[in-house]
User: Fold this.
Amino acid sequence: MNREEFIANIREHQPDLLAETYLAADTVTAFPNPVDYASFKTRVHQQLVGVESLSIVGTGNWRFSLNPDKDLKEFDGTSDIDIAVVSSEQFNQTWEELRRVHRSRWYTFPHAIREKIRRNAEDVYAGFITPMWIPGDPCELRYRFKTILNQLRDESVQFKPIKMLFFKNEVEAIDYYKRGFLLAKKKVERDEI
Assistant:
């Protein structure tokens, strides 16, 4: 799909339908071969417990960035691989660890870290989280998570950096990515793209 076709899709379809369709895709920009994509997804499944579904998202899926500041930048050699994992188990485990750290160390953190935790709380409320938000060392959960990300960063993804979010459920994942398509749709309608 080229840029003009992508813009036409944004113009013609509802943002939630676009998000749902891309999340369910059998091929993505980073893995145009469905067998290779399925193999990568299997590798991710094997690293995590309680995965209900997962998808490569962002430019690695739909090819063009929905970040309002990137003007539909195309997936390229500088792009990373973003993964959305629907797993209430991983979401809850990470949330519990973040809460444990919060309860035991809140007043020891500098103001900037406390503000970052407050901002992350809005994201948790919206149904997504990552162990990368857990502050302080040592943090076994964050360490294991980073190890998984590093193991996934191999030749199959051209050694691109891997990022991953855990979503409470499928509804929250669709809602999160719908926002990006909604912002892009507004820019398309105003002829800003």
